[in-house]
Design goal:
The chain is an alpha+beta fold and 344 residues long. The protein has helices at 133-140, 183-191, 230-241, 251-267, 306-315, 317-329, and strands at 27-32, 37-42, 55-59, 61-63, 67-72, 77-85, 90-96, 105-107, 113-119, 124-130, 166-171, 195-201, 224-228, 246-248, 276-280, 296-299, 340-343.
Length: 344
Amino acid sequence: MKTADFDYCLPPERIAQTPLEPRDSSRLMVYDRKSDRVFHRRFFEIGDFLNRGDLLVRNHTKVLPARIYARKETGGKVEILLLRRLRDAEWECLIGGKKIREGSRLILADGLSATVLKDANGASRTVRFNGPFDDFMQKNGEMPLPPYIHTKLNDQTRYQTIYADQQAVGSAAAPTAGLHFTRELISKLESSGVSFADITLHVGLDTFKPVSVDDPKDHRIHKEWCEIDADTANRINETRQAGARIIPIGTTSVRTLESAAMAAVESGSAEAVIPIQGDTGIFILPGYRFRIVDALITNFHLPKSTLIMMISAFIGREKTLELYELAVREEYRFFSFGDAMLIL
């Protein structure tokens, strides 16, 4: 298995630059593994493929306005991208600017400053903010859109799921498969007997990072903080015991669910999942045996990324590339603001 095995040709015009309105008007490619059939629909028709008793598991993390600007004491401009809160005032950040070293002091607006505590890897730094930083971030921060989106987003809420509410830590990127849901669609699905359960995984920017090593097994997967509480774990186990399907919304929900399933195995529990809280570094490659995921809602992912490798683990590499080639021919929209897949 080589990283190059997960590459595909994507014309630049297929990368969605803006979200569609309404959210659930995006296209939906449905792939049924049992029949090997493909259906082309709209996302608001997803209920045609769901059953009473199905449990959709969604990541309700909230994207932080994580891009902020500062200047060095010498006057040079600095861009700070918040990656992960380590403590109340300390963050892991990416910093764009020359000669930003340990001990450097950065000047922000509103009388705030930041001190670089230590270097990490590459442009990554640990930074301590001095002053009421959360208020500053909400007032001055910008939404950290992925690097392949070049069009300005006028409505910042469109890079936020409608059910996002976990901001104590927050994400540097959106769990984008959830962007297709509207309140009306959720209500319609619930009326038909489909349920929703909330989990948390705070997404880091490495989710967009292609794998650069030749062998994916040598890739260092990013760790992200996740949680499944006792109530949600019980609902997942009850759904499984009832013979209904567990359907994660997006790859972040997959990682969280499978982490909880692995934790159950490691603890000797008879349950399918147990409550978890903490970092997960699970890396799902072809050959992985899924323990809890029965179907999957996802977007179309970057070539040679850990995410397309996860989809390949679920349906096979050749089938994944075949479906992606079909999506290109059918002019689906790709990546964060793009169209969706439902894999049954």
